[in-house]
Amino acid sequence: MTREREERLALLTRLEWLRLLGVDALPRGRADAASRREPPLTAVVPGDTARGAAVPGGTIRQRGTGVGARAPAGHAASARPVVQAGLFGGSVEVEGAGTARVRGRDRGAEPAGSPLASVRAPEAPDPAAALRLIREEIGDCTRCGLCRKRTHIVFGVGSASARLMFVGEGPGADEDLKGEPFVGRAGQLLTKIIESMGLKREEVYIANVVKCRPPENRTPLPDEIGTCSPFLFQQVQAIRPRVLVCLGTPAAQTVLGTRETITRLRGSFHDQDGIRIMPTFHPAYLLRNPAAKREVWDDMKKVMAELKASG
Ligand code: SF4
User: Fold this and answer.
1) Ligand 1 close to Cβ of residue 154 (< 6 A)
2) For the whole model, what pTM was predicted?
3) Span between the terminal Cα atoms of the chain, in Å
């Protein structure tokens, strides 16, 4: 498939998804790789799934579409239902072990419910075993279109008992080739940040919202995030870090279930299911805007203080 055709298909998919949500005006958004991450992005929200997108443990049904699809057989049967708010208001029902609803019409308001609290890790003797089960469940995943161009599924790396976890948006070219998150230039900067905090990279856990590289490093589409993010939530629940640092707008929006941008979210903790969430700028943004390093360091100082205070 040519690149032009691929971009056209991605655009058509997105327009169809917006139409299904009843959106009558397009959001401002940017698709180019160079400008994809920070802060103006407002359109990516967790669980804004295309019609009937399958999630671990159940079915997502977008209100008003009348469609739904059962999750594939054997697909993360241990996961509890994911309850997500629809973009621009609206609601999404998730049916599985139970049915729940999230409603909301106030654009920009925090949706009720915690995406993290809606998911549980698989039952396992310890966090490392739970992570292995999640990875096995992902398998050679073809649940969303990102499978087509990937080299490796980039699951996550680090300590299964980490007290500090970092979450980015998705793998880039270096990560796709190596199968490990945050190994390119932005990853090297993240490693420096971690070491500046007095930690080693292997002492924390690092993962992404989507496990496969979006073509041309574009921002993952809402249906891709909706399909893949339950695996991230399971990873978080397996590890149960004291602090989860969300790197950039898509990661923060996915974990917090909000439409707010990173500029609004960063700088303070947001508690979700007993985990302290600190959104901050993505290292790739810092490479383009070195002046923002000071704000990230301010955020990391709060993270260090929290880790110290919690023993
Ligand atoms: S991004 Fe996630 S859901 Fe999509 S193919 Fe990769 S592992 Fe599967």
Assistant:
1) no
2) 0.70
3) 53
Listed as ranges, residues in the chain with pLDDT below 50 are 13, 15-111
Q: Among 240, 238, 242, which residue's Cα sits nearest to residue 130?
A: 238
Structure tokens at 206: 């690092």
What one-letter code names the amino acid at 83? Answer: V
The answer to whether 243 and 311 have CB atoms below 8 angstroms apart is no
Q: What pLDDT, on the 0 to 100 scale, is given for residue 114? A: 81
The tokens for 62 are 């977008």
The number of residues making up the chain comes to 311
Q: 117 exposed, middle or buried (CB, 10 Å; 0-12, 13-18, 19+)? A: middle
Atom of ligand 1 nearest to the CA of 231: 2
The answer to whether 144 and 129 are in contact (CB under 8 A) is: no
| pLDDT confidence of residue 115 | 87
Give the three-class secondary structure for 55: strand
What distance in angstroms lies between residue 210's CA and the mean position of ligand 1's atoms?
6
Q: Can you point out the beta strands (E) in the chain?
A: 54-55, 58-62, 92-95, 99-101, 157-158, 164-168, 205-208, 243-247, 270-272, 275-280
CA distance 114 to 271: 9
β-pairing verdict for 157-158 and 205-208: antiparallel
Fold of 127-309: Uracil-DNA Glycosylase, subunit E (3.40.470)
Q: Look at residues 9, 144, 149 and name the one whose alpha carbon lies nearest to residue 72.
A: 144
State the Cα–Cα distance between residues 159 and 309, nearest whole angstrom.
21
- Which among 33, 76, 47, 228 is positioned nearest to 147, based on CA atoms? 228
Q: Which pLDDT belongs to residue 3?
A: 61
CA dist 212 and 228 (Å) reads: 9
In short, whether 190's Cβ falls inside 6 Å of ligand 1 is no
Tell me what pLDDT residue 109 has: 40
